[in-house]
Amino acid sequence: MTASLEKTARRRDTSRTPAFFYPSAREGMRDLLVNSAAALERGVLLPGFIGWSAIEGSGVFDPVREAEVQYGFYGLNPDLSADLDEVEAQLKSGGYGVLVIIHYYGRSEPRLQELRRMADEHDVILVEDLAHGFFTSQSESSAGRFGDVLLFSLHKQFPLAEGGMALYRNAGLIEKQVGTRPDLAVEVLSYDWREIANARRRNFSVLTSHLLELPECGNEFTLLWPELSEGDVPQTLPIWVHGEIRDSIYRRMNAEGFGMVSLYHTLIQELGGAFPRLEKLSRHIINFPVHQDVVTNEIPSLVDSFRASLHQMTEKQIGDS
């Protein structure tokens, strides 16, 4: 018997997931759509919580508009997970060739396996938007395990001025796609991913414990996710601010030097008010930084600033009413 076992790996297709780098993730999304017959002929189905800003536009929706493909939206549950009944109903129409799942704020979509089953059943491409979830996809989480294509916003996870990546778990979808920033691979590989993930998880945990101790918790604000699931690496820590004071808190805290963000503060107009609960969430959500540059001994000051802002803006709102 003659063996043919090589000394080293030779087959280039074994466990290969081709990666394309771009200045932004939206360019990767556009490259996919314009080269996908499924998208061009049948359209794209997206979640009903998609943000827009005057500076950045909409990262996931702008490419859909620019590619001039048909689109539709499905609803989400209160925890921003996909409403499976709505997804199923939309896919049954046969009007979509691409299904987009967003891992909001780095939290993995908990129903990915079922969504994968639906995608297979209705012959659609499953795209995982991991703009906030690069490190989550590199952990033991299910994120990044079921999509045909994974999209990443590298500059939202690493200290880069720009950067996006499209990873093809289904290489059969590659037609004429061309990456324009291959040099970014060197930048991404120059960081310790595990150390960054641990820092983000640690900061989330410490910050959460401080916020839960505040007497205002549950009355004047609510944590969207009080606990971090195993394997999830947060992009930020989102909370729901009660009352119409989110923007005032954002401005005051940033003026004090605390880098708060307000992601999805305005939803794209194409949603047309179809999801009022998600529209309401967009007006109340604010995000605390938990990135790898945050030092844990700075967190108490961050929380103190938030509490003072919360009191000041609540009193002002009462005085103005």
Provide a short characterization of the protein structure.
With 321 residues, this protein is an alpha/beta fold. It has helices at residues 25-34, 37-42, 62-66, 84-92, 112-121, 134-137, 184-188, 193-213, 246-255, 276-284, 299-320; strands at 19-22, 44-47, 71-74, 98-102, 125-129, 149-153, 164-168, 221-223, 236-241, 285-289. The chain has two domains: 19-188, Type I PLP-dependent aspartate aminotransferase-like (Major domain) (Aspartate Aminotransferase, domain 2, 3-Layer(aba) Sandwich), CATH 3.40.640; 194-316, Aspartate Aminotransferase, domain 1.
Structure description:
The protein has 321 residues and is α/β, with parallel strands linked by helices. The chain has 2 domains: 19-188, Type I PLP-dependent aspartate aminotransferase-like (Major domain) (Aspartate Aminotransferase, domain 2, 3-Layer(aba) Sandwich), CATH 3.40.640; 194-316, Alpha-Beta Complex (Aspartate Aminotransferase, domain 1). The protein contains 11 helices and 10 strands. It has helices at residues 25-34, 37-42, 62-66, 84-92, 112-121, 134-137, 184-188, 193-213, 246-255, 276-284, 299-320, and strands spanning 19-22, 44-47, 71-74, 98-102, 125-129, 149-153, 164-168, 221-223, 236-241, 285-289. The strands form 2 sheets. Strands 1-7-6-5-4-2-3 form a 7-stranded mixed beta sheet, sandwiched between helices. α4 packs parallel to α5 and α9 packs across α11 (299-320). It starts with 18 loop residues before the first strand and ends with a helix.
Q: What is the helix tally? A: 11
Number of domains: 2
Rg, alpha carbons = 21 Å
Query: Quick one: how many beta strands?
Result: 10
Structural class: alpha/beta
CATH superfamily of the largest domain: Type I PLP-dependent aspartate aminotransferase-like (Major domain)
Strand order of the largest sheet: 1-7-6-5-4-2-3
Briefly, what CATH class of the largest domain?
Alpha Beta
Return the average pLDDT rounded to an integer.
Answer: 95
Largest β-sheet summary: 7 strands, mixed
Share of helical residues: 25-40%
- Fill in the CATH topology of the largest domain: Aspartate Aminotransferase, domain 2
Tell me which CATH architecture of the largest domain applies here. Answer: 3-Layer(aba) Sandwich
Gap from first CA to last CA: 89 Å
CA-based shape: globular
What is the ordering of alpha helices and beta strands? Answer: EHHEHEHEHEHEEHHEEHHEH
| Unreliable runs | none
